[in-house]
Amino acid sequence: MNIYFQKNHQRALGTFPLTDATLLAAIECAVKVGYRAFDTAQMYGNEATTGEGLAASGIAREDLCITTKVSIDCFSDDKFLPSVEQSLKDLRTDYVDVLLLHWPPADGDIAPSLRMLQQAYDKGFARNIGVSNYTVAMLRDAIKIVDAPLVTNQVEFHPLLNQDKLMAGANETGVPLSAYCPVARGAVFKRPLFAEIGAIYGKTAGKVVLRWILQKGVSVNVMSTNPVNIEANYDIMDFTLSHIDMARIDALTAEQYRIASKDVVPFAPEFD
After folding, report:
1. Domain ranges (residues) in the chain
2. Distances, alpha carbon 3 to alpha carbons 37, 123, 127, 182, 241, in Å
């Protein structure tokens, strides 16, 4: 089974944009709730605090799933591996469970950074490797460039954005998706359908959204600082949405509400 869909790893605590005491409190709460998967990145500027929080948790390293991502600013030969070594130092670990390329390079030439990612894997810096924000065409090329399997393509994934092409590409290439911005930074809560469906199951709108994502076969990275919400976001395994309710939510993807658009991220690829 893919590491992102193992027990307790389907639901990770996302750490962006948390820092300092706020992040430490969120990690402490998440660990108590049951989270064992944590997602960070060089670009977030919070790897050191994440490492501090996980070290203080008392959870054995082998029971944690730590994901971090290499910034596109570090995609050069002289920066890539040193940046990963710094990430490990900041995270207080000898390895990360998953190391991702945060974005495709702006020039679209994915081969050099993928080869450096392979080097990090070969050196034991990461137990698994993957990518983020890759198109289907990029995935097709990527699996030919690296020897190690790519365990995920982390992408924007929520019920207000149609990602059917990426899902098809995931099935074709064998590189599963994992979700960031799973509640579209709160935009989903402006649509009454989720609360309506939640009432049927005795669940909150947020639980319905996250359950829809999991039932799509996509793992979830979700951030919260509210202890009630941290627990609620984790506690989504005791119900299953019907095919009818899944289809009702599917219809909302036609909105094509994208957060990580080129207006926000100028170097983003032309998304599928």
Report:
1. 3-255
2. 10, 20, 10, 19, 24
- Pick 3-255's CATH classification: 3.90.950.10, 3.40.50.2300, 3.20.20.100, 3.40.50.720: 3.20.20.100
What is the β-pairing status of strands 98-101 and 37-39? unpaired
Report the C-alpha gap between 224 and 229 in whole angstroms. 6
pLDDT tens digits in sequence order for the chain, 272 residues long: 577 777 678 999 999 999 999 999 999 999 999 999 999 999 999 999 999 999 999 999 999 999 999 999 999 999 999 999 999 999 999 999 999 999 999 999 999 999 999 999 999 999 999 999 999 999 999 999 999 999 999 999 999 999 999 999 999 999 999 999 999 999 999 999 999 999 999 999 999 999 999 999 999 999 999 999 999 999 999 999 999 999 999 999 999 999 999 899 999 999 99
- Give catalytic residue positions: 44
